[in-house]
Amino acid sequence: MAEQDQDFLEFVVKGLVDHPESIKISRVVDEMGVLLTLDLNAEDMGKVIGRSGNTAKAIRTLLRVVGMKNNARVNLKINEPEGGTRGSADTGWDGTHEAPASPAMKSVDEAMEDLSKF
């Protein structure tokens, strides 16, 4: 395969991002296949992941096609960059899929009681 998959990934990602000079791709081959690990600028994460992860899914699908052509299983791992906002305190996201409860949230009875004052 001679790193055709790595060259392909680099070509595709460089076409998507604003900071192509910060792209780093490492390639590891083991008994499970080929693992490509992508590191990029924090500002470019959204472009590579895409809405609902659709761009990343498409890139992974294309990499599998490149791998099948060369009888190899190719997987892509996208590393969270330094300075990324996912999971940080300023976003309010704690790693779960549930939004934190609002401290100003009232029960229905409390809200009805407040309305009865008017």
TrEMBL record:
It is found in: Cytoplasm. A probable RNA chaperone. Forms a complex with KhpB which binds to cellular RNA and controls its expression. Plays a role in peptidoglycan (PG) homeostasis and cell length regulation. The keyword Chaperone applies. This is RNA-binding protein KhpA. GO terms for molecular function: RNA binding. One of its GO terms (cellular component) is cytoplasm. Its main location: cytoplasm.
